[in-house]
Every structure is written in C-alpha cells, then in structure tokens.
Amino acid sequence: MSPSDTERRQRAADKISRLCAEPRDLVSLWQETTEVLIGAVPHYWTPCYYTLDPASLLMTSHFHQGMAEFPREWLVSEYYEDDVNQLADVARSTSGIATLHEATGGDPSNSPRWHRNLAMGGDQELVTRLRTRSGQVWGALALYREPGAPVFDEAEKSFVRAVAPVLAEGARAALLLGQARQPDFTDSPGLLILDRDGNVESTTPGVDRWLSELPDGDWDSGRLPPSVLTLAGRTLRAAEHPERGDITVVRVLSRTGTWVVLHGACLDSVRDRRVAVIIEPAGPGRLYPLLMSAYGLTEREKDVTRLVLRGASTSEIAAGLVLSAHTVQQHLKSIFDKTGVHSRRDLVGKVFFAHYEPRLRDNERRALDDLPLRGEPWLP
C-alpha cells in the first residue's frame, strides 16, 4: 500500500528539518531540498530559491537549476513595474504565501510575470516567503506548474507554509557559515566549532575578538562565555528532536554595550555531534553603512529609506517611527534629492541596481565556482 499524501509530506518535512539542522553551503542546501520538494509538492521543472536582505527585502541571490544567470529584464520588472506576486509584496503580506492565479482573480493574462513564466513553460506560480520564527525574512521560494496541471491545493500550500521557517533558518545558517569561513570585511561573523563536551575544536580568524566582547568569558585562559556554552547545550538537545524546529539563537549584551547575536547549529546528525556557534553583530546588516556612505543620509533618513525599500506606506512609516505623515514626506523629499530620484519606486530601483544586483551577479559567479554565497548588499 502506498503511503498517504499526509504521510509523504510529513516525511518530507522531517527530511527538510534534518537538512537545515546540519549546516552546509547554501547551494547544496537548495539542491538537496529540491529533491525532497518534488515528492511533497509536484511542480514543473525546478524550484527557484531567492535570498533577500532582511533589512530591505531586496534580492541578494537566486538559485534555479538550469538558469545560471537571472535575466536583467526580469529584475527591471521586479523593481520598476507594477505586477502581482512580487517578492517583497509576498514577504510583507499577512499570509506570506500567494499564487499568481489567486492574485489575478483567476485571469493572469494581464500580468507580465505570467507571460514571462509561460514563455519558460510555467503557467501557475506559487511564491512563499522564508521567514524565521523570530520574524526575519531571509528569502523566498517559488514553485511552478505547467499549463493544464492541477492548481496548488490547500494541503500543498499548508505544507509549504510549514517548512518555510525551517528553510529560512537553514538559509540564514548557510550564509553565516560561508561568511565566517571566508570573511569579506572586519565585522564579519565569527565561527567556532565545539565538541559535545564544550571543548573548542577550531575557530575562524578574529573569533577571539567576538568572544572577548561577551560577558564572563576569558579567551586567553580558555574559559568560554556562559552564553556560548548554554547555546551549545541547547543546540545539542534540539538536534535530538529536529522535527520540532527548535531555534537556537540568543541575543547577548556585550561588554561594550552593543547587542550580539549567537546562532547554534549541529554539524553532524549521528554520534559525536559537534556544534557550530556563529557570533555576529545585531542590527540591519550592511544596509545602514551603505546608505550613509553612498548617499550621506541622516540617521532618520536611513530609517525612512529602509522602510520604503520594504514597501511601507507613508502611514506605516509614520507609525513605525512615531512621526507625523508630514514629517515623513519632508524626509522623503530630502532622500529623493540626495539620491537623485523622483519617486519611491525609483528609489527602490536605484538602490537595488546600484548595490544589490552586483551582489546577485557576484553570487551567480560564486555558485559556479563553488564558493559561499553572500547575503549582504554589495559595498564597492
């Protein structure tokens, strides 16, 4: 007797949880996830995976087997044209999932996105955000079906929603591990590997600086901070039950008064497990220094710009920053003047093509060269 759809999807969800709990490079994670998804949610050709910068919801990479380069005209459509099912819109939506046919009331013929998909052989499109349980969006997943195929049903959409946070955590860990192992700048994450008894097996260069900032540790004498040991213990316990999707993340106030985030993940799924602990600064990544260095925005203008990039309306920006709508409009006028644009859409497009498309193209080359992908915008 063949297993029921429910049993098959549960096994797929468990497998995805195991894959995401065993840190690996991002491309490998997407490749292995693809093999699992086809049995749970039948689809045309292959999924399209995206990473998004959680500070801006702008695209930093894509992975679509058989498409090594994302067409530039598709990026122009994504960031300059009005359409449905755009990544940032789905990422900001209440449900975090949308199909092209639902978004167009069953008639997608007026959607440029649908015509583009159809030219590639795909009729239906399902897009879901990859958002961690802590609320950060790290990517998106798109699945397609050919003309004449059944529509994505509620059970399939429910499965995709259920595994999306797990995939988000897996993508986040893969990006952090890659950046820690091959850092590009001085505030890159630090990585240390511990055995199951809490002994240090290896570290990346500069991790001692991170550890020295954590309370109650003494790296010179070999005493790890309690926050690191506690996180390692939680990570090992969570690995015993990967189906629960436990998140091993802690936020620690450093000795210098700034917040630091620690992430834990098991490197092995069997005996003699080891724990990877990744340490990074809390905050919106590289977006803030980018906006300051490139455009000379004030602190408040940077806050407004970040929300504009995420698709927030004037009223949402005003509520989020506790400003009047008039003050928001004044900030927008100054931002437009400094960046040389005339509208919010132009601002989004300018920031993407100046600082995110170069990162996306760099990640395309990295994928071909078997190098770790990067999740932050491009800083020349």
Distance N to C terminus: 59 Å
Unreliable spans = none
Binned, the helix content reads: 40-55%
The secondary-structure element order is: HHEEHHEHHEEHEEHHEEEHHHHH
Question: Quick check: average pLDDT?
Answer: 91
Strand order of the largest sheet: 2-1-5-4-3
Percent of residues in beta strands?
Answer: 15-25%
> From the helix content, strand content and strand pairing, which structural class follows?
alpha+beta
Q: What Rg is obtained from the alpha carbons, in whole angstroms?
A: 21 Å
Biggest sheet statistics: 5 strands, antiparallel
Name the shape in a single word: globular
SS element count, helices: 14
Number of distinct beta strands: 10
Key traits:
about 375 residues; alpha+beta; 5-stranded antiparallel sheet; 14 helices; about 45% helix; globular
Write up what this structure looks like.
The structure is a single chain. With about 375 residues, the chain is α+β, with helices and mostly antiparallel strands. It has 14 helices and ten strands. The radius of gyration is 21 Å and the shape is globular. The mean pLDDT is about 90.
Q: Can you summarize this structure?
A:
The protein has helices at residues 5-21, 26-40, 72-80, 87-92, 100-103, 112-119, 154-181, 207-213, 226-239, 287-295, 299-309, 314-321, 325-339, 344-368; strands spanning 48-52, 59-63, 97-99, 124-131, 137-145, 190-195, 200-203, 249-253, 259-266, 274-281. With 380 residues, it is α+β, with helices and mostly antiparallel strands.
